[in-house]
Every structure is written in structure tokens, then in C-alpha cells.
Amino acid sequence: MTGTTCAVTQAYEEYLAFTEERLCGRCLPCLTAAPLIIDIFRRLRQGTATSADIDQLEKICAEVFITALCKHGQKAVEKISRVISDYRTTFETHARDKRCPERSCEKLLQYAINPGRCTGCGKCREICPAGAIVGEPFIPFRTDNHPYVIIRNRCTRCGLCLTVCEEKAIEVA
């Protein structure tokens, strides 16, 4: 696997390339499995897959490997099986924790404000198009300040908050 691309994304992109360039459509196993495999990869990359989906992906690949009529289809699913085996932890992190360890799956990025760095200027709140940042400007000597936080469900991961935060208080995990 390459530096910043996670195993899930790389396997997905390689399988997509197979479907566009080599999937001949002459045998039923590859033809019927392709949309299922692509759907599982998409859900893994969007954070809607479960660990059971990884098992299902392995099962589909094993069945296609046995029943496919050509070596191209067999090689494509064999590669997926090998990647799952070698990078099982990465696949599980996508499915279980809804997180991409290499930060290459945009939908799985999680933005947070480091309260230790945040000065309470409010620029991030002003620029957020989704209204995902709540809180109030910091007022010295006041004990009931409400620091800025990012509401995960509202955040669209556009990254605009990163561009305006001079204190680098926005963290991406």
C-alpha cells in the first residue's frame, strides 16, 4: 500500500479499475459480484459498513475466485482477499470505529477543536456553512464561558474552519 492512501481506498480503486477495464461480462460470478463488492467498499469508505460486511466481502471474493471462468476475475478478488488479510485492522477500524487511520477516506474524517489552543475568536463558527460549530466568544474573567465545539453529525468536513483558524486549534483525526 502507498503512503497516504489507506488499504480500503487502494483496494477499492484497483477493483474499480478492474471493473472498467477488464470485467468482460461473460461469466455470471464476476458480473453479479461486482456491484456487491463495490457497494461494500463504498460503505466502508463512508462509515456505514459493519464488521459483518467485511466478512461478507471475503465470502463473496472466495466464491467468485472458485466460480469465475477467467483469470482476470480470479486475480481481482484474490487481491481483495489478500488486502483484507494483510490489512484486517484497517478494514475493522473503518467498519467498527468509523475512522480511517490514514485519513484518506474523506467521509470518515473527524474534526475537533482543541480547547487548549482555541482563543475563542469565533472565526471558525462564522465561516462554517453547516452551522456545525457552536459556542460563544471567550470573555475573560467569566466562569460560564461556552467554548467552541464541532457537532460531528452536522459537520460536512469541508475544511473551511481549518483555513481560518490562526491558532491551529482545529484538529483532524
Written description of the protein model:
The protein is mainly alpha-helical. 50% of the residues lie in helices and 6% in strands. It has seven helices and four strands; from the N terminus they run αααααβαββαβ. The strands form two sheets. The chain has a two-stranded antiparallel ribbon. The chain has a two-stranded antiparallel sheet with strand order 2-3. α1 runs antiparallel to α4, α2 packs antiparallel against α3 and α3 packs antiparallel against α4. It is elongated, with a radius of gyration of 21 Å. The model has no long low-confidence stretch (mean pLDDT 92).
Quick description:
The protein is mostly helical. The protein has helices at 7-21, 28-46, 51-67, 71-86, 88-97, 123-127, 160-164, and strands at residues 111-113, 133-134, 149-150, 170-172.
Quickly list its features.
173 residues, single chain, two-stranded antiparallel sheet, 4 strands, mainly alpha
Furnish the topology, listing elements before pairings:
Blueprint: H1 7-21, H2 28-46, H3 51-67, H4 71-86, H5 88-97, E1 111-113, H6 123-127, E2 133-134, E3 149-150, H7 160-164, E4 170-172
Antiparallel strand pairs: 1-4, 2-3
Encode the helix/strand succession as letters. Answer: HHHHHEHEEHE
- Percent of residues in beta strands? 5-15%
Give the spatial strand order of the biggest sheet: 1-4
Count every helix, treating DSSP H or I runs of 4 or more residues as helices.
7
Low-confidence stretches: none
**Nearest-angstrom radius of gyration?**
21 Å
Globally, the shape reads elongated
Number of strands: 4
Class of secondary structure makeup: mainly alpha
Give the termini distance in whole angstroms: 20 Å
- Average pLDDT metric: 92
